[in-house]
Design brief:
- 14% of the residues lie in helices and 36% in strands.
- The chain has 651 residues and is mostly beta strands.
């Protein structure tokens, strides 16, 4: 904000003004001068400084001059060093002279009451509200950057409350204030403060529905700004004062809500601001965590038809030494698709970390899971809603995030979000709801990539891709489903004399011989098309994630027609796995047994185990695969956050 203020003086009079430290008072000398004057003198009291500026050329003269020539461009600039000890104790006197240099023609006087006013936030991002940071009114990314951070207060401190903390204008627990961003008004003035001055804290109309401000008064906290209120007024009182506020975010950024909010503090006299200070806060983005982040807790549902699956799944999670939460059927309403209902992430400020789950709009049997079992102290929830029809594309098996990557020199230290959609040339195809896409795009730190997944019956990207950690290269591998690898393997097995070996032995469907699969020309042609679809995504991911072929591992996969335009997995889709550190829970494919070993499992082990990964093949055939999903679809993982602070990114 401008720190300049224009004041008009009159000859023969004394003008009294309130001066805010750090500002410059501009006084036109020529206009109020008496006719015939040729020069002027300026005298000031101790602690009051002045200089003379040439308005035309912008020259400023500060060295001592006894007598100044009066011109049309003469401008007096006044500053004060410290807060006044009494009202009007700062003096500036301007004396005018005509042709007789010994006889003053007239004079005008300025009396100043100097005060200190500052609106402060944690602009240096160290968790402490410093005083009058020069960079508090702007945002800059990076470790040498500046600008305060604002959290969306979407957790629930009071467990008996009906919704998250930011849903009303109340603070039910003082612990809730720790989720908010501290803001302080600091003022200082003399004992005899002039009357008629107030402080006004205000926000732009566009920000009022994005933020709420609470004022601390003794043992109470009251909402004073935001929601419906654009400004709040306070008395400007004498002495040292500190007024404490806490700001909470109400909504996450999207295409309607920008990432920055602005607060302004004005000193007001006769309804006109004479000084305004400003601070800017940046919304903390919602951040997803990739498979390369360490797991903290695994979630899965228990229903009558997945008892055997759960026995194997529990053993796997125990081997990975990870906490497991099993949601009983009484709470999941026979909805087993945990991955589709929620996506785990977090938000963070220098003073606070909060887990935040994104709750999809699919609203099936698990629709109350996030609200009932996750929302709580320091665990927030984004409740996505839409007035439009929700499709399977809006479930979160269609939402993933890559590990950190560098692409053509540009770093993505938090990875990149990946979502599935239709091809650009097919605008009427299926795609994720605009409300979800807009929110993901607006978070700004995990720049989303749009893949083509509309060729699948369910349409989820986790049906053909996954990321696993690796000790070399970029720190991970991209796994892609590959019909081409499947046919290459089966043709080799046939050539080696195993054509009569069968798939699906010991399952609840008819066994199929290798020879029979390879003889099915229609199936092969359909999978040739599927391979083209996956290759389109492969090429895009190589560009957008900066990958080489050596960063990609093809996983043998076969798809079968669901209808004329969509396909689904022919056998349990091994790419659709759960990743817990080095431990991989992979759908058991029930491939042909060659020398007592599943040929499909053997290929996957040979590709992944040299990377230090531990492969466990879990039987999900009847519990998930026959219901159009796999292990990843039926589970979910909350992971550790990144050590990198998002505000230190260079964007």
């Amino acid at each position: 904000m401008s720190k300049q203020r224009t004041v008009h003086l009159e000859c023969g009079k004394s003008t009294q003004v309130l001066y805010v430290l750090g500002t410059v008072i501009n006084i036109d000398i020529y206009k109020p001068s008496p006719p015939g004057c040729r020069s002027f003198e300026v005298t000031t009291s101790p602690g009051v400084n002045y200089s003379i500026s040439d308005k035309q050329n912008g020259n400023v003269v500060t060295h001592p001059v006894i007598r100044w020539a009066l011109t049309e461009d003469s401008l007096l600039l006044v500053t004060v060093d410290q807060v006044s000890s009494a009202a009007n104790d700062g003096k500036v006197k301007v004396t005018f002279y005509g042709d007789n240099l010994d006889k003053p023609v007239d004079k005008m006087t300025l009396e100043l009451t100097a005060v200190y006013v500052s609106l402060d936030v944690d602009a240096d991002r160290d968790g402490i509200v410093e005083e009058n940071n020069p960079n508090k009114s702007s945002w800059m990314w990076g470790p040498k950057g500046h600008g305060a951070v604002l959290l969306v207060n979407c957790d629930k401190e009071l467990l008996t409350a009906s919704g998250p903390d930011n849903m009303d204008d109340k603070v039910y627990s003082f612990a809730d204030l720790a989720d908010m961003s501290r803001m302080i008004i600091r003022t200082e003035g003399p004992k005899g403060m002039p009357a008629g001055y107030t402080l006004n804290l205000h926000i732009p109309p566009s920000d009022k529905e994005k933020v709420q401000l609470f004022r601390h008064e003794m043992s109470s906290v009251a909402s004073v700004l935001g929601r419906t209120k654009e400004s709040t007024a306070m008395d400007f009182t004498k002495g040292h004062n500190k007024i404490i506020f806490s700001a909470e975010g109400l909504v996450f950024p999207d295409n309607k809500n920008a990432t920055l909010v602005t607060f302004n503090l004005s000193v007001v006299h006769q309804e006109i601001p004479i000084f305004t200070d400003q601070v800017v806060l940046h919304f903390a983005p919602w951040i997803m965590t990739p498979n390369t982040q360490a797991p903290e807790e695994v979630y899965v549902c228990s229903v009558s038809h997945n008892e055997k699956f759960l026995v194997e799944f529990k053993k796997f999670v125990k081997k990975a030494e990870c906490k497991l939460t099993v949601l009983p059927e009484t709470e999941n309403a026979n909805d087993i698709w945990m991955q589709d209902e929620i996506e785990f992430g977090y938000i963070e400020a220098p003073h606070k970390f909060m887990n935040v789950v994104m709750d999809s709009p699919r609203n099936r049997g698990l629709k109350n899971f996030a609200y009932k079992f996750l929302l709580g102290r320091d665990f927030g929830r984004i409740n996505l809603k839409s007035e439009k029809d929700v499709t399977s594309m809006d479930s979160f098996g269609n939402l993933e995030v890559s590990p950190p990557v560098t692409v053509n020199g540009k770093e993505y230290p938090l990875g990149r979000i990946v979502i599935g959609s239709h091809l650009p040339i097919h605008p009427n195809g299926r795609k994720m709801l605009k409300e979800i896409r807009d929110l993901l795009m607006a978070q700004s730190v995990q720049s989303p990539i749009i893949l083509y997944s509309d060729w699948l019956s369910v349409g989820h990207i986790d049906e053909f891709m996954s990321f696993v950690p690796a000790p070399d290269r970029k720190g991970f591998r991209l796994l892609l489903a590959s019909p081409l690898s499947f046919y290459t393997l089966f043709k080799r097995l046939q050539k080696e004399g195993h054509g009569e070996a069968v798939m699906f032995d010991n399952t609840y469907c008819d066994p199929v011989k290798i020879n029979e699969i390879l003889k099915n020309q229609a199936l092969h042609e359909r999978n040739v098309h599927v391979q083209h679809c996956i290759d389109w995504n492969r090429d895009l991911l190589k560009v957008e994630l900066g990958l080489d072929e050596a960063d990609i591992i093809d996983i043998p996969t076969l798809f079968k027609p669901h209808n004329a335009t969509h396909v689904q997995a022919y056998f349990p889709d091994m790419v659709n796995m759960i990743v817990l550190g080095k431990y991989l829970g992979i759908p058991k494919p029930f491939g042909p047994l060659i020398n007592g070993e599943c040929a499909l499992e053997a290929v996957v082990r040979s590709a992944l185990e040299p990377l230090g990964l531990d492969c466990t093949f879990i039987n999900d055939f009847t519990s998930y695969h026959k219901r159009d999903g796999e292990v990843h679809c039926g589970s979910n993982v909350r992971r550790k956050p990144f050590t990198l602070k998002w505000w230190n990114m260079e964007i």
